[in-house]
Design goal:
alpha/beta; eight-stranded parallel beta sheet; 15 helices; binds N-(iminomethyl)-L-glutamic acid; binds fe (iii) ion
Length: about 400
């Protein structure tokens, strides 16, 4: 049986209790953590098929990116150029750019092309320390291409030795061909897309972009109510450009999380705290689109909302999958402490995905990272570069 012993760990950051064990070791067997503790207490009878040294570095849980759009074709680099000259994201979208331009490229691409491109991004992000990903559809917006995206996410789920969670985002925006007939697009979503996507079992959640220019509060309620009947969990893109009572809607629907939240109201924050909806902040997106407004993470945490941080990797509003970098932006722009940031990219992100992960615990899947750093805060400080020496997925060295 394959097993792995990691020794010479200056700080084992379990994110559990106790949170940190110094001068530690971890033993993994059959993909799970089997033993952890101070190295001096290592049991004599553990027989490892492979031993690695952390060389006096840190071992911590692999990071969890609970909001990404990793599957897409094409680039929107030219829009960045336009934005650098003062044109704003919503203007670009109104002129036919934005999400709809990625939809055109994604419709043209084959499943194989989409898979290759997404797999490359996944591997690069994994080398930066992310071991669990949520990935959304939403660049098809027609039955055939939404199912093609689902197929690609399903293939990534099978091939990637870490974890991939699929989310159906057919309600991203109304596609161009239904511009004057949104009711017909809603029918397509409810009568064909949702039931067929449910059958594939690739996507455990359904997401809706609730915003002017995307879907209304009432439409989101209708879509999510039906999605729940089909067994989907709910997550929502809300309150990104204005307060649309999206946080409150997430609470009312029993959503796992509400994401973006740049303009979330105090009432919505209170409702989210009460309903235990995770607030997912996407500081890389706020930064890349201009950085004028960030989600009120402090207010959310103080009101009792669990805050997670994700990258929102996508070709338009944040072409970046470095979760550490998102954490640094959260610390500098959202007044989160470094401990809150670490919590946000591990255990709180796991809650948003409703999985047991983000902690190093006996019996749990051994998705771990070894950092070439004196402590777990250093990569947030010396930002924008990688401090990951080794990535361990299900007990096996992968990087
Ligand atoms: O999360 N808010 C809506 N959707 C994406 C943007 C996707 C795109 O611009 O392609 C987001 O920011
Ligand atoms: Fe998003």
């Amino acid at each position: 049986m394959q097993s792995l012993l990691i020794k010479n760990i200056a700080r084992l950051v379990t994110m559990n209790s106790p949170k940190v064990i110094t001068n530690a070791a971890v033993f993994c067997e059959a993909g799970k953590v089997k033993w952890l503790g101070a190295e001096k207490d290592l049991p004599q009878n553990l027989n490892a098929t492979e031993t690695v040294s952390a060389e006096g570095g840190v071992v911590m849980p692999g990071l969890i990116d609970c909001h990404t759009h990793l599957v897409h074709a094409g680039s929107r680099q030219h829009e960045f150029n336009q934005r650098s000259q003062g044109v704003d994201y919503l203007e670009i979208a109104k002129a036919g750019g934005g999400i709809l331009s990625t939809v055109l490229s994604t419709r043209k691409a084959t499943a194989e092309q989409l898979y290759q491109a997404a797999n490359e991004r996944l591997k690069n992000a994994m080398k930066l320390g992310t071991t669990t990903f949520e990935i959304k559809t939403g660049y098809g917006l027609e039955l055939k291409t939404e199912l093609k995206m689902v197929e690609v996410i399903g293939r990534l789920q099978k091939d990637f030795p870490g974890r991939v969670h699929g989310t159906f985002l057919g309600a991203h925006v109304v596609p161009r061909e239904y511009k004057n007939n949104r009711k017909a697009y809603l029918r397509l979503l409810l009568e064909q897309m949702l039931p067929q996507v449910a059958e594939t079992r690739v996507c455990s959640a359904c997401d809706v972009f609730v915003e002017e220019g995307a879907f209304t509060f009432a439409e989101a309620k209708q879509i999510c109510t039906f999605a729940k009947e089909l067994g989907f969990e709910i997550r929502l893109h809300v309150d990104q450009f204005a307060d649309g009572k999206g946080g409150a809607l997430a609470a009312e629907l029993g959503a796992l999380d509400a994401d973006h939240l740049d303009y979330v109201s105090a009432e919505s924050i209170a409702a989210m705290a009460k309903a235990n909806v995770v607030g997912v902040a996407l500081p890389g997106e706020s930064f890349f689109t201009g950085g004028k407004n960030y989600p009120p993470a402090r207010k959310m945490i103080d009101a009792g909302v669990k805050v997670a941080i994700a990258t929102d990797y996508n070709p338009g509003t944040n072409p970046n999958y470095n979760l550490w970098l998102a954490g640094t932006i959260a610390a500098t722009q959202m007044q989160m402490s470094l401990d809150e940031v670490l919590q946000a990219i591990t255990v709180n992100a796991a809650q948003a995905l409703k999985i047991n992960a983000g902690k190093i615990q006996v019996g749990e899947t051994a998705d771990l990272i070894i950092l070439a750093a004196a402590d777990e805060y250093y990569p947030l400080y010396n930002y924008g570069t990688s401090h990951v020496r080794q990535v361990i997925l299900a007990g096996k060295c992968c990087k």
